[in-house]
Amino acid sequence: MTADAVKTKGSFRGFMSVFLCCLAAVFEGFDLQVPGVSAPLVSSVFSMDSIDTGYFLSLSTFGMLFGALIGGRLSDHIGRKWVLIGSIVIYSVFTLLTVFSTSIEMLFWLRFLTGLGLGGALPNMFALGVESVEPGKRSTAVGLILAGPGVGGALVSAIAGMTATPEQWTVIYYVGGIAPLLTVVPLLIFFLPDRPEETAIENANASDKQDINKAMPGIMETLFGEGRAIRTLAVWTGLLSILLVLFVLLSWLPTLLVDKGLSIAEASIIQIGINLSAIPGSILAGVILDYLLKRNLIALLSVIFIAAIGGIILLATGPVSVGVMFLGATLAGVTVIGGQTMLYALAPVCYPQKGRGTGVGFSVAVGRFGSAGGPLITGYLVAFGMTSAQVLLSLIPIAGLAGVMTLFIAGSVRKEQDSK
To answer: Is the pTM of this model over 0.85?
Structure first.
């Protein structure tokens, strides 16, 4: 086979892998955000207070923590494809079973089990995306995949807006459970390359090809060996911070906006805005990161996080109108989700090929402390009397910390590229 034929074959496999991961991410985002858009209704049906609501919004993300650890490590041993498929089956089934909940405790357990599948899927989608394209397009691939959850979140927000009654709260759980099983799972089985590691070899750079031939490193060696300790801690801190901010917005924003005086339907419209903003935010962030890394313009990344803080301030202090809140939510969505994309794109590059699933899995898992803790802490803050504006303003220093970590990691990756 000629070099051009090998390159074409690798490019096609890369395209298929990224496309299918993006499709899987749509339903991952749908099922992940079901609790946020349904919380006002579910809280009414099950007579939950704000603390109960916080647990309801957080337990799936606690499940994601364990799912990411297990799914990431397992994928290094048996391959990304089947771990990804199994994870999708798990979160789809438990999302569907949620409609049969008869108590708050059962509702909590089902959301936790749903999170196991969601967590197992995420690191494998990122690893597949990074390994399926050439090094200069890795951030763009992750950006495309992360646009998927925004589409899923917009879909679930739209359905919630049309079924905003206590009698119809189960509709979005039926959709979130059945649709992935009937569409994504068969497509992944038949069309995701059976041996994605071949695609990785065809698209890898020289150092990655050397890593492919090495024995699989242990967990501690993967995370902290060969001078990776500081970078690993920076990735963990950055993801924990940005996901805390993001999941407070995704989970609590509808409830906070209703408390500010908007209706549930109006809050759903604004939530659609923050989710739709994920599409350009993720894609542009990936493209921008690839561009800035190539040209050593790392400092420009700070603009994204400054804009994120501006969007949060507008949500917290702006006039209570659909237009102003939609603008603030869209600005915050584009930039916060863009920052998340950059961190998720940088994380796989920090680890060797053979241990990439483990490294990304641990990064996703640590980030879940933020995504799980944020909604839970917010529940307590609301219960103790903190206003919606105060909750939102408290996110500003956390977003700033995420920005600092992103700048450090990007600079470290760029320095490593220059040294090769």
So the answer is: no
CB distance 93 to 40 below 8 Å: no
- Which are the contacts of 307, defined by CB distance < 8 A and separation ≥ 6? 331, 334, 335
Domains delineated in the chain: 3-419 (1.20.1250.20)
Q: What is the DSSP letter of 48?
A: -
> pLDDT tens digits, residue range 171-216?
889 999 999 999 999 999 988 875 544 444 445 455 555 555 556 6
DSSP string, 66-130: HHHHHHHHHHHHH-HHHHHHHHHHHHHHHHHHGGG--SHHHHHHHHHHHHHHHHHHHHHHHHHHH
Token readout for 88 is 């999708």
Task: Please compute Rg for the chain using Cα positions.
Answer: 20
Torsion angle, alpha carbons of 140, 69, 182, 36, to 10: -80
Render the burial of 343-373: b for 16+ CB within 10 Å, e for the rest: bbbbbbbbbbbbbbbbbbbbbbbbbbbbbbb
